[in-house]
Amino acid sequence: MLSLEAVAWTPRLWNVVVFLTISLHLSSGTPTEKHQKVDVRYCLNISKDLLNEVKESLRHPDVTGGFNCTDNVIVLEDFTQNHTSTVWTCSPVQESGRCEKSGDSHGCRFSPEQCYQNITADLQIYQAMLQDFIRITGKVCKHIQDLLKALNSDSTYEEAYVDGGSTTEDEEIHTIEFPQRMVLCNILQAFKLRTITINRVMNYLNETQL
Predict the structure, then answer these.
(1) What molecular function terms (GO) are annotated for this protein (predicted)?
(2) Which residues fall within 8 angstroms of residue 36, CB to CB, at 6 or more apart?
(3) pLDDT tens digits, 88-113
């Protein structure tokens, strides 16, 4: 049986592992992703499927077992903080106080290219974290991969997805213990919110065809 101390500290240790994983993946990619013409409608369809798979994964017994994994119970962590600014760069109307104070109207213009770059980075970050739970998140990772390809990203980390799938089921059953379920719950809930944002952005871009 896990002690209260183990339950309290193990997720924090996992956060360290997650951070190192993110750093390794981001450092191995290109500094600036380049995107050719993007089929926005196709991306929108994939992002809808991705959101559905994330919601489905949140109902998996290895995620929900032993505690209430809902976004109004757990304290969500922004895993992309200091790495991306998707909400800012993908906002169609950027008339916030930051724009007004800076006086830089050019820097406040909506840029689909910058938006795609930030979405790509978001997807890569979550893809890297979800690899450790591939038996549960396999379909989610597959849809992430599909969306990265649809965004014409120069770096999709397909190798990481393939390698992650090589973990045996027995090994994963052994690793999905209560502290790790808490970690996975937090990751999936945070990714659900980011995927909702991506869906809204893709829907806006599809309607306006920017």
Answers:
(1) cytokine activity; growth factor activity; interleukin-12 receptor binding
(2) 152
(3) 899 876 545 556 555 555 556 788 99
